[in-house]
## 1
Amino acid sequence: MLAEIITIGDELLIGQVIDTNSAFIAKQLNKIGVSIYQITSVQDDKDHILQALSDAEGRVDIVILTGGLGPTKDDVTKKTIAEYFGDILVRDQSVLDNIESIWKQHVRTQLLQVNRDQALIPSKAKPLMNRLGTAPGMWMDKGDKVFISLPGVPYEMMALVEFEVLPKLKDKYHRPYILHRTLMVYGLGESALAERIEPWEDALPKHIKLAYLPNLGQMRLRLSTKGFDEVQLKNEVQEQIDKVIPYIKDEFAGFEDEEGSVEIVIAKQLTKLGKTLAIAESCTGGAVAERFTINPGASAFFKGGVVTYATQSKINVLHVSKTLIDAHSVVSAPVVESMAENALQLFQSDYAIATTGNAGPTKGDSKAEIGTVFIAIATKNGVYSKEFNFGNLRLKVINKAVNKALEMLLKEIFKN
Amino acid sequence: MLAEIITIGDELLIGQVIDTNSAFIAKQLNKIGVSIYQITSVQDDKDHILQALSDAEGRVDIVILTGGLGPTKDDVTKKTIAEYFGDILVRDQSVLDNIESIWKQHVRTQLLQVNRDQALIPSKAKPLMNRLGTAPGMWMDKGDKVFISLPGVPYEMMALVEFEVLPKLKDKYHRPYILHRTLMVYGLGESALAERIEPWEDALPKHIKLAYLPNLGQMRLRLSTKGFDEVQLKNEVQEQIDKVIPYIKDEFAGFEDEEGSVEIVIAKQLTKLGKTLAIAESCTGGAVAERFTINPGASAFFKGGVVTYATQSKINVLHVSKTLIDAHSVVSAPVVESMAENALQLFQSDYAIATTGNAGPTKGDSKAEIGTVFIAIATKNGVYSKEFNFGNLRLKVINKAVNKALEMLLKEIFKN
């Protein structure tokens, strides 16, 4: 069962907007056994969309379009779909009712003609009701194939995928089971890891695919397979995992959660243990905290954090002693350890992470080389820190520091 | 001058990784007059890549590939390119020297054969030297067209684009000038904005393209054009901007910076004025701070922030009075205003933003409805706050709150 995602919008092709919709759709479709063959981003242009539709129809069973359904003149997807199917646009009363109800609830002024016209859909299309916005989703069967058009606004698209698209696809097609499992590995480069596990990789059954995913100091190793016997596939993959772990037992740091990330693994473990976390950030500027707070349930374990970017803030807010800073500089082991200890006290948490460093591009309040970062972990049993140099690209320094802080915390939490 | 970006990697097609490379490349190419016709994401599969190369060659002048250049067996791009050009792989001494030097500097163990083999490139390819990693970029001319292959690791790809690809493309092609200007508009929905500016839009010259970009409470209006007379294009677009602003004078909030975002506009203005900022976040969990600290130069104006997720942290860290919280609840105007005022004092800043609210999915320490958010701005002249309801989707609530906080700050800073 193959699908293609076509994302429509000039903003994607000039780099003004990053396409996050495709990854979401791909992940959701994988869960019900639909593989994405290709993702194609095209312009808000009739001829270009027509060509993409025709190419995709030749390649896959399911074509999913996002974008270009707004009420303004630059949005041409709906007219183009009607033309592709040799169809005309007709008013759908259920869509109009939904638009009127949204308008009444959120806008409260008189409904505009352009929004009323959003209820026009191709006569052969079934509407997919968008409760969060005025642009309807559309479902069009063509023989055994199906074309699905969704709005590009992420939250509207997401709700339609979950509540309309997935149930309907499950009804229409007999689908295999797709299995991905991802091992997190720290402390080994891509090629060193490959060399280490080569005997295992060479003996891997052909229907289990292996991928290496390097990510700033972290390696991920993904095993993927699909088929119709879910239990057998799970057993086969588990057997391979049991075989590979002995090769990497010191570097293996657990499985990436289905929804995907080390912070979710940490969050689950902290919640399970009933333990709490505080974060004191300098060079990472709030990025460590955000990795946790973006996920639901963070309030169960996350007490809070401080971003003490300026040296004076480290003194005023985090009560790091000025004498200590003067003696060792603001980018140093004693200072980062004091930050972690004080965050632990201030937030009354069980664990605290602290970061201080110089992400560049210019040197700040310390003489530390650009890329130098200290990271500390404090618990009720004490505090320790490590020094790193993450190179001289600002974003890389920040992201590597975040990854390393999460790695250190993960190891601390799973130590026992 | 048209280009196509082909991103290669199963991780994109299963939704494990979001493709951020394409937006970067598109933005950089636009700056030198190269338009992106299409972005195509394909699997780590020889036949699929061959097909994509052949399709792209039929559509555009410049084909840029990213990904699939690693040292492990799942990476097949290089062999596939050689096959597409009927070429063989040969060892390039300059690439091998670079690999050895990187290895010596960063890894320090013996160079592995798989990394030595990364110096194999198609005999007709010119190497693009990757100073940050062992996978070389490659440049292959074919008549008037060019194929460029880059590693998928973002920092390596970015450096190669900046230092190798752009200069070489500028040398090879006579390119037009591409102009995008984006107006930020607050407080008008997409269709209300379209209705308001309709007379102006209908009179817009055909070679200036208008796009509407809605984004959680903010609207962006983009004017795009290209041609060979840079001065004339700039004048024409400026003339149109001068004409449209009177229609939206109360809602217009400035221009999006070239590099693209309201926080950069704020950062530039604060730096120019020599003013500073502190941030106290609850429901936004560090996301407002991160929007500022991710950009270079943040230390010029950003004093720091606190994420007081737990109620007790608001009391301990931010010194909000327990009596105030008990009287009004933790999600209330008096509490958010106290958070902003105390952050201003604690960080000794000129401006402070504070957020408190309930992002869901469950209710926390307050009885506030899910989606309720209070945002406050404090300055040395006083404090004010506003109440919002951003619906019941966690990510949407957080992102809308961040956008709204930035909007309020932008307006405060540009008030005079």
## 2
Amino acid sequence: MYGADYYPEHWDRSFWKKHVELMKVYGIEWVRIGEFMWSVVERSDGEFDFSLLDEAIELLSENGIKIILGTPTATPPAWLVSKYPEILPVDWNGRVRGFGSRRHYSPNSKAYLEYALRIVEQYASRYGDVIDVWQIDNEFGCHGTTYSFGNEDLVAFREWLKEKYGTLENLNRHWGTVFWSQTYKSWDEIVFPINTPTFENPHQMLDIYRFMSDSSIRFLKSQVEVIRKYSSKPVTHNFMVDFMDLDYRKMARYVDFVSWDNYIATEEYDPLRQSANHSLMRSLKHQPFLVIEQQPARVNWRQVNENYESEYLAMWTKQAYLNGAMGVMPFRFDQIRFGAEQYHAGLLDYYGRPTKRLEAYSKAKSQTPGVITPKPEVAIFFDYENEWIHRINHLNRNFKYWDAIVDIYKAVKKLGYNAEFVFNEDEVEGYDVLIVPYASYISEEFLEKIKKFEGPVYLTAMSSIKDKYNWLTERMPWHLIDEFGIEVVDFGGIKKEKGYLFSQCVNSLFWKDELEVFSAKVIGSFENGTPLATVKNNRYYVASVLDENGWKLLLSENLKPRVLGKGYELVNVERNGRELTVVLNTLPIENNVYIDGSLHVLKPFELSFVG
Amino acid sequence: MYGADYYPEHWDRSFWKKHVELMKVYGIEWVRIGEFMWSVVERSDGEFDFSLLDEAIELLSENGIKIILGTPTATPPAWLVSKYPEILPVDWNGRVRGFGSRRHYSPNSKAYLEYALRIVEQYASRYGDVIDVWQIDNEFGCHGTTYSFGNEDLVAFREWLKEKYGTLENLNRHWGTVFWSQTYKSWDEIVFPINTPTFENPHQMLDIYRFMSDSSIRFLKSQVEVIRKYSSKPVTHNFMVDFMDLDYRKMARYVDFVSWDNYIATEEYDPLRQSANHSLMRSLKHQPFLVIEQQPARVNWRQVNENYESEYLAMWTKQAYLNGAMGVMPFRFDQIRFGAEQYHAGLLDYYGRPTKRLEAYSKAKSQTPGVITPKPEVAIFFDYENEWIHRINHLNRNFKYWDAIVDIYKAVKKLGYNAEFVFNEDEVEGYDVLIVPYASYISEEFLEKIKKFEGPVYLTAMSSIKDKYNWLTERMPWHLIDEFGIEVVDFGGIKKEKGYLFSQCVNSLFWKDELEVFSAKVIGSFENGTPLATVKNNRYYVASVLDENGWKLLLSENLKPRVLGKGYELVNVERNGRELTVVLNTLPIENNVYIDGSLHVLKPFELSFVG
Amino acid sequence: MYGADYYPEHWDRSFWKKHVELMKVYGIEWVRIGEFMWSVVERSDGEFDFSLLDEAIELLSENGIKIILGTPTATPPAWLVSKYPEILPVDWNGRVRGFGSRRHYSPNSKAYLEYALRIVEQYASRYGDVIDVWQIDNEFGCHGTTYSFGNEDLVAFREWLKEKYGTLENLNRHWGTVFWSQTYKSWDEIVFPINTPTFENPHQMLDIYRFMSDSSIRFLKSQVEVIRKYSSKPVTHNFMVDFMDLDYRKMARYVDFVSWDNYIATEEYDPLRQSANHSLMRSLKHQPFLVIEQQPARVNWRQVNENYESEYLAMWTKQAYLNGAMGVMPFRFDQIRFGAEQYHAGLLDYYGRPTKRLEAYSKAKSQTPGVITPKPEVAIFFDYENEWIHRINHLNRNFKYWDAIVDIYKAVKKLGYNAEFVFNEDEVEGYDVLIVPYASYISEEFLEKIKKFEGPVYLTAMSSIKDKYNWLTERMPWHLIDEFGIEVVDFGGIKKEKGYLFSQCVNSLFWKDELEVFSAKVIGSFENGTPLATVKNNRYYVASVLDENGWKLLLSENLKPRVLGKGYELVNVERNGRELTVVLNTLPIENNVYIDGSLHVLKPFELSFVG
């Protein structure tokens, strides 16, 4: 699925033909359109006009270009917001978020839902199987819009709680409301803890994170149901990079395949961080995925929007392919001169001429045939709810769950192996190594899988210390004390301490357990001599957070280092019954890499299949 | 009064017996309970149920454990807030502070006051002399809750102003409202300066700080009055560390003894800063005080909540004793698994087992018999209103009054002497040295005491430059020009300048006076040659802010250095008619300290009585 | 016009005589009074009492002191705000800005306008030609008060838009509302984009900046019209340093001469930055201007308010003179003991004694006879709307238009030449060199002037890339591609890159063009080899932002360096038909400067006329 995102509504129809011709010249076979067109197709309440979209779809189809059509619910029009101001979301400070950009709606607003599902039905009934793939809305949760704290949200939250807890007694018990005199006598007394003098109830907070995620998922689901009435085409949604506000694992159940928007969101660009996101997206359904938006070069939303030379787009395309993508679609084909994204690069330039980026992309496309299925040797346990638990009332507010996991992912990759993420319900058989990092809450089901796993298991500090209501457990790691031969008897936050592991020096960060070691061997220690890492049989426990280097050292006992060099990404695949290693040079210069002892000289950004 | 804070309501009654047994084993003789129980004992409006509290008190009493009972007014229940939302406080931004944590009330809310005094009366009438000590509310002002800017606060503020000024003409004159056209024609025109385009009226601001402090004091007083109707037991309130929003000196008048909560609130832990707080608390009534909450190890409210090894709790207990405490109660006995403080350490662990902390505390208790009365050689003038004056519209917004005073306190301690704080109404006879630092406003009464004081007096920049309405005085230092032989003729903020004092190099910070020297000798200069310090007879003037080292140097002329070493705290006491020096090693390692020329080898955290 | 700002209303009448005597002793010939007196002269609605102002004016006039009278509209009284709370402005967060400081009004409030124009009419009709100059209001826009987002502002904004665009179709097209579905069907749907989830519409934003500036200008204009009914005296307004919220060029049309308030607003004091402001003020009407407020020494509104030795005031006075000022008036004559500015220095001290500052000022006055007309060799294009364009949705949010222009100004000055600012409507003939820096939008009129200009022209990155609706142009630099022989084909933000210019090393900052060079010569390159600077005939293009050193190097081809040394400011003037160079030593020490090869030894802060 190679193509690009396209906005016919931004142009006078006279430009369209030129655009489509260039698409054909450069091999753009797919376009995504329509996801911000609400005010174009519904000019005022009930006044529908699909002529523009009809014509665009017709022109594209005539020219053999396949279409992903986005439902336009991310941008309720001015006439709608003006009529029903209660549609607007309310932020963490209790302030209404205004009209004038995008995503200005709460998915719990009844008025909004009515109009949103009506326009979706208009789209679905008109274009049913005419188009090829449906995209629901656009980037749920972007700009913090997972969260809304208005009246309708509160009503919906109370309903959600009633369904979950049944009785107030039950809720009071699980929320521990006896603490600080917070006991509720009526459902109507429950409010969002906005601008509270001090720390919120951590059990309530976890339910708020769950409820907010569920609100978007419910909205996606209701759109899918409308579309299903009219269309047999696959449905997807564009997920985001480094994004943890929504439980994507849960949301992925309701789409036919996962798509995501591959942008560089960190201050420093790190190719393996993008790879971790690719793998997370692949792991959501353990199936190929689509990069439905690919950063082309500079964007417009950073403090400093640096450009990237055109060959980067080629490399990013190959990297997606390497990680199991079934296609890459740069955002966007046409370059816009106006609007909030006027500085965002496109594949054409402001004058409509093809850029070097378009050429590079077009060439990369020809080097990425079919879809690769990467073979991951390592399973890393991941859970969105754990990310929320780490946000709430924790011991070290500097710790970031996803960042710490990306460090582990990078360690595995640099050793020459591939990693995939596994969730509570996933099977873990077939992987060589299982890592369960910083997993505050682990379901009983998965605890059993850990015990049964035959290969080495790595467990860390902060794992299995919480129940599903966000209470700390009586003993830690809960249900795994015997398995690992240690008990956590005390703990505290740390900034950075030196430690020793296999006689090497490592950094321990963020957290420090005090262990009682029953039946394990100590293989690492903090500088003050207390245990940093232990092993019992092939069960490893790390009493802190390690950085990438620490993890490389720790894992190397079971993942023998295969690669020497830097600036590479490597994946093992099966192809025609043969195991192959595929390697990508992520550097813009020639790169010498030793794989399994043999030298490979890689050209700038080269993708190479190795023996 | 050795014991701990305890929360029976957080446990099924089946746990209580185990808790009480452990208390007895480890010598917990006192507990504080009940201060967050409002929704437990008043389940809904007027529906009282004291069974839990009754049983807990009975069980504790039966086992010989003495009880401090806290009134539960810090946490108005959900049913009350839901019924009277106007109870909620309003912050500096004009935003309501929500339900969902604690201290969510304004002490000026009529509805709140009615319900709060009703529940206090329920407590008082039921437990009158059954319990041993009363604690009023919990940590007045914590989380910025001294301040509330709602409608009822405004009404109360106008009443407070009417009482203070009598007429609007009087208020307009003292507030200088002619500046920027702020003259009031009606009391109802007076508002809180919320979100003003620029700087507020500094005279109004000082009255706001006073009014807000008075609001909490008035509320404390009205609770005490209710309790007095039913009980002859002493009343206290738990004051806070490094806390300047409330005039604790004024508040202390209404309690029988001062208690405070000894937590480490600064980024870096500094034992002598905690000592300064102990001394401030002792100085409020110049009587022994209670550490009613003692940080046990890690807390939960810092960015990074570091743990402390168990022996720290022993040392902190000894340090309190050294500074004149009559008891130390770690917060908290039981370790909670839920609630906003689930990560806060206790004396038990999550599984209910005694920790090493509990053992260390128990042992320290046996090393701290009776109550010491420290003998301070030095008096440091202190005034809460001056702290507020420094907050308002000053010349150098980086200057912090209390931090600068702690530096002086530490200098005195490190020289081997003890300091106490004196307030406007206090006598200063009996001290060897009097320091009057950064005291913008000094009462006429105290100005006279300065003049009469026979020993050396140290006065600094920013002292006696304001009247009690926060006007600058015509000449500076007001009423002390002749006494010190200098006049401040100009001044300005500085960042950090080098200076010279007794031919040594010192840092001058924050503020720089330009002096006219009449009849004093210059003993220090700024780098540009203007006078930094002068002396006339034994009257010293410092034209800037010195750090700890500068003060050590300056004071050493009158306080001959007695000690060599580091990591010690030293106090002189009288015991059985003999002068003794007591020294505490605040380091976790063996420590060599020379006192009056003799070597003392102190074990880690050792408390030692020296000849 | 030498004098000072004076506040008789802050003093009991008994002090006035002393003040006036001191004025006469020290040569204070002008005073500005009255601009914060609203509540003094209108004590409640319609209750006027001009006795104080009458008496003050009479006393000053009797003593031969000339008067600038300020209209008091910057401080609506409490009684007025209390009666019409809708007068209060609303900030960017949608929050009302409260009473209690100053500038608490929206110029779009109908109630406010009615009362403001009434008090102005009272002033004007009473003092018509009795006083000598009128100042309108005080520092329009100070403290961010250019911006108000209340209901009345919104109504006025919609009217402003109707007038500008005529039809909604027109507005929708120019605002590009098809982007993100923002199309408006009714004028009433248009709102201010307050607290939007993400980036606002950049075309709407530019109109908001224009509207807000116009609102203040319209208010100024309506005051001028009232005054003109009663007075023939000149009207001015006090503009501010480094201030870009208002289009001062547009506002300057409605005053008879420009005044400004010369304060140091940057973290580090830089005399040439103040000079740039002087020149900008002179350039607004290309006429002499008045420094109506001059920082005397310390102020009160900085984080750290450092003092300045008295001779600085003398130097600042000479610097204003050097740049074409017709007078300098320190703020303020009398030193206040109360109010929000109690720490701001005056020319008297708190006790009413003359300070060394007053002496220094008085002496400097005698060294600055008449009014100099500086002869600028260099024209720098400047435009307030471009400053707003740079604020909105740009590529590098760290770039600051005015700061980057000050760097160019300083480069010109340090080479030994003088610069003036030119605006779209200004003529450029007569200047030797024309610099057009960072000028996103350039009017067609000015584009023609660039082409016709015979001398060297310097154009930079980000110039002529926008149309007047803030759309990017199709090609860049728009209409100047042939003239400069290059086209910008791509660009991106940068932090800091090394570059080469005339074989020297330079820093390139913020922005990096990718150029296609048609018919120009490359004279500078980025480190990666792409062109940094080009020249075609005498048309220079710089593909990035240079710092002061880079500009000195680049300009030196056409502005041969005349001066060696540091800490000087130099201006060429014509005097009695002779060209003279005037040089000011801005350092408090003796300074050796070589001008045109000859050594000049300048005394501290000396102003010297050179051959």
